[in-house]
Amino acid sequence: MAATVEAPTTPSVAPLPQVVAHRIDPAPTGWTSWVTTTDHKRIGIMYLVLTFGFFILGGIEALLIRLQLAVPNNDLLTPQTYNALFTMHGTTMIFLFVVPVMAGFGNYFVPLMIGARDMAFPKLNALSFWLLAAGGIVFYVSLFFSPPECGWTCYAPLNETAYLPSGGVDAWIFLIHLTGLSSLVGAINFYVTIANMRAPGMGWGRLPLFVWTILTYAVLLILALPVIAGAVTLLLTDRHFGTHFFDATNGGSPLLWQHLFWFFGHPEVYIMVLPGFGIISEVLPVFARKPIFGYKAIAAATVVIAFLGLLVWAHHMFTTPSPSLVLIFFMMSSFLIAVPTGVKIFNWIATLWRGTIEYTTSLLFAVGFIGTFLIGGITGIFVAVFPVDWQLHDTYFIVAHFHYVLMGGAVFAIFSGLYYWFPKMSGRMLGEGLGKTSFWLMLIGFHTTFLVQHSAGMEGMPRRIYEYSDIKDLAVLNMISTIGAFILGLGILVSAINVLISLKKGPIAGPDPWKANTLEWFTTSPPPINNFDSVPRIRSVEPMKDIRRQVLAQTGGTEASPAPTSVEAGRLSAHGGGEH
Amino acid sequence: MASRMSRRLLLTLLVVVAGALLLAPIASADLFSPESGGSKNADDIDWLYKATFAIALIVFIGVEGVLIYSVVKFKARKGAVAAQIRGNTRLEIGWTVGAAVVLVVLATLTFVKLDSIRNPPDSSPDGLQLADTSRRLPPNGKALNICVNGQQYIWRYTYAADCKGGKNLGAPFSYEEMVVPVNTTVTLDIEAQDVAHSWWIPKLGGKFDAIPGYTNHTWFKVPGKFATKPGGTVFFGQCAELCGRNHANMTARVRAVSVTEYQAWLERRKADIKAAEQAAAQQRKQLEGSTANSNPAGPAAPGQNPARPTDASSTQNP
Ligand code: HEM
Ligand SMILES: [Cu+2]
Questions:
Q1: ipTM greater than cut 0.95
Q2: Cα(A282)–Cα(A113) distance, rounded to whole angstroms?
Q3: Domain check: are B152 and B252 in the same one?
Q4: Model pLDDT for residues B218-235, shown as the tens digit of each residue
Q5: Domain containing B173 — which CATH number?
Q6: What pTM does this model have?
Q7: What are phi and psi of B188, to 5 degrees?
Q8: Residue located nearest, by CA, to atom 26 of ligand 1
Q9: B241-252 pLDDT, tens digit each
Q10: Domain total for chain A?
């Protein structure tokens, strides 16, 4: 392709890597170079841009929902439009934003963090991206005829043609298949890349925690996706080819759908949130200037959560006709999963403890994440107690609970990652003033929107209703919630503006603006096509610390200059790559 | 500049939010726990919720407190050096066990309350006098059973001991409003006609899904104090499982009345249904031959005209 660079992968053997350029092409530019690219960094950026686009769409849908619910008995939207809106909102946020945005970060940073020059299968990687784009398109064109109206869970038998004959549900099925295939191909790619392409010396015990979570994310996707793919295929044949898998009047079972859906759906929750955990585990030690507390415990907790995540699916089905024994089993397994989750939170806080914490926007989002996600975790315990869930299930309490987990958890982590990694991807810093404004608006907006929803649910307000009567405190609670949603939306907008401004005007970042710990900071920002000319030998979980220490030693202990040395920049010079 | 602006913005927002949060609870007392009061199972769920809440509050304040403390206390200052700690096995085992213990306590509380939430008690002596229907529950086998049937977008109640296979044909029924006697254990067999629905009257306990092809069960028993005034007390609820466009309008009411009032209502209901059936039969006779589309027996739901004038008009315009 461009420069053919051959550098020994183990520079410890040959201290001075040789750059042998047979031919050097200028880096490709123009839009065709994006469409045809197989470079993991460009694919990563396309992922991030596309998924943030969907995040904005999903956010607009959310604001329309909140406008409709602002006052009792509102008739701004028809019931049909309302049902279509929450279905599109939920589906967009899950299948077109949170899951693939993690693949975006993973694509860009997994190879960089493990010292690889690309993903294992670059062409499959491009395929993953284009399948995702296709899934988004087939789903959103249903706007021009009739979008699905059955919620992101699309329960049987409402999903059958007898009740929803329009093509919206079929568009939704198509979306599940395409995005599922995209994630599956991507997951295999991640798995192979992480298993085979780590830098010399990077054993499993030195794998960055973000990479651990992407590995777990990949395994969970591989286990869970075939189940939903099977389920929607059965639904497709029910709808168009005369089968009756989910049709009780012909011997089928609507509960089968729920089991299949949640056998996928619950691991999906961890698929969405585990990479977020990984981002937090990277960001906290950098800005607390302290090693992560309990690396092994955090990595182990990730794997345990993933395993237990496969055993809790029926806690979404506590109100279905089920024997007590089943209810008890799923209550206990859900309790069990709270333990490793709690362990992670304790470890993060212990990482901050006795650190020297720099209040960057990225760190603020990470701390906001811990504080907010904690509430989502605690309300998760409430709904795991199944008699209590009998009151809370399918109400606004649940809507609040999963937004604390997904918005307060995953989205805050994503923003933390965005502020942390934007300099690496663009070469420029994001504005801290706008960043902090955005953070506080989002934090306050978020809690204003969702805290009161717990109460609305307990006062009897079910989810997925387009209108409610003016009883109890529903009017005031919903008004507060709607105001909060607009504050939250404003906060997101501020970050979007920040990104647009900084792309052109942000201060130049340099290779390692945060003095971070992992290998992606060992190269220029943005990295060259081949990422690294030489890959150092890894001796700990914090290779960059080792490298900086060594540079200090080599330069005779003179104080570290704020400008990164050529070694830190990864562009080789006489220092020989910083190994030894 | 930007940071001062954001601080001012933050302050005003904080005031707005705090004000809103303070104002809201004044309106009602049950903002912080599920509804209860209409039946013992709802009360027990409420108790379990509050117990969980108490434990959760301690965990919440503890963890959130340490988090905020460490972020504030360990803010980077000149000359401060971060402690290079990589872990502490004892501490880590400690909090893992700690978390597990909290959950064991919660599970224990749940098991203690489970029986009284899940299983109905006997009716009180001053409740409706019932024949032994040999139901598995309550313990003496006597309960007033009502078949609850969810359909887009209305609830139908049939007052019959057996809900299966049309065995309740001819039994008294009502739509949307269920009338029950106080002090009497009412068991519900919950089914669905078309799509999935969910039965939920918050003050009378948790919700139970109505799923086509399945029968779900729950119960409630309204204390006598709710029937002291004539007309009794109405408990409101609504369908809690998305069932289509008008899911929001699928409301349900349970009116708890005294035993005598209940008996009078049931007799009146039987008579009404009989009268309506006769009227319908007569009408059917008139229409005989002109249309194959016969009326379903009995009066239709409130809001629907039992005579279905559409049938008649369609015969006039062939
Ligand atoms: C701008 C911030 C957001 C607001 C104001 C918001 C608001 C809402 C509301 C009010 C509902 C309930 C609709 C109903 O039940 O009638 C809802 C549903 C949902 N939201 Fe959000 N949301 C936001 C962001 C997110 C994010 C970031 C995610 C996921 C990562 C998400 C995932 C979902 C899901 C899965 C549902 C369920 C949809 C369904 O019932 O099928 N939301 N949202
Ligand atoms: Cu319904």
A1: no
A2: 11
A3: yes
A4: 999 999 999 998 889 999
A5: 2.60.40.420
A6: 0.89
A7: -120, 135
A8: A407
A9: 999 999 999 999
A10: 1
